[in-house]
TrEMBL record:
Domain Thioredoxin: 44-178
Protein name (Swiss-Prot/TrEMBL): TlpA family protein disulfide reductase
Organism domain of life: Bacteria
InterPro entries from the UniProt entry: Redoxin, Thioredoxin-like_sf, Thioredoxin_CS, Thioredoxin_domain, Thioredoxin_ResA/DsbE_sf
Organism this protein belongs to: Candidatus Doriopsillibacter californiensis
Key words of the record: Cytochrome c-type biogenesis, Disulfide bond, Redox-active center, Signal
Taxonomic path: Bacteria, Pseudomonadati, Pseudomonadota, Gammaproteobacteria, Candidatus Tethybacterales
Keyword Transit peptide: no
PROSITE patterns linked to this entry: THIOREDOXIN_1, THIOREDOXIN_2
CDD domains, alphabetized: TlpA_like_family (cd02966)
Amino acid sequence: MTGKNLLAGICFTAGLSFAVLGALHHSHHGGHHDDHSHRPAETTFDILKAPLATLNGSKTTLGASAPALRLVNFWATWCTPCRQEMPLLDKAANIANVPFVGIAVDQTTLVKKFISEKPVTYDIFTSSFDIFYFFQNNDNKTGIIPYTVLLDNKGNIKASKLGEFHSVEEILTFIESV
């Protein structure tokens, strides 16, 4: 197994583990069952209404601003391929004709520290593990990150990519595919 495949496998496994742990947390809340603690895998999940946190701690949603099309990259500080593609995403964000957003499935304090050391020009938010319901309802059933989608202003996925981008050109081609 090559180093890249091993890293991808680790991120895949970590993503899957967090998705399963998140699902278990919701279905086994406090050892008792109530209607608010269980969410079926195929539940409706509106990405535009999903609660996000800015790095300064305020709350927002993707629906707060709804451009015709935007690139949304899901990542985490512990995911090596995610960290490796961020400089490429940053360069592409300054060239592309669509806004970019990064959503970290991670703790805000860790993301804030990481971004202070390796800043990007596009907006970065953090999300709870509930974001994995968005993955499950679309083409990322196993929770692989990095995961990048092109979203329209209604929250529909126009294109998606599981795994890491390897060049600015690859990112621009991904955007132009829509």
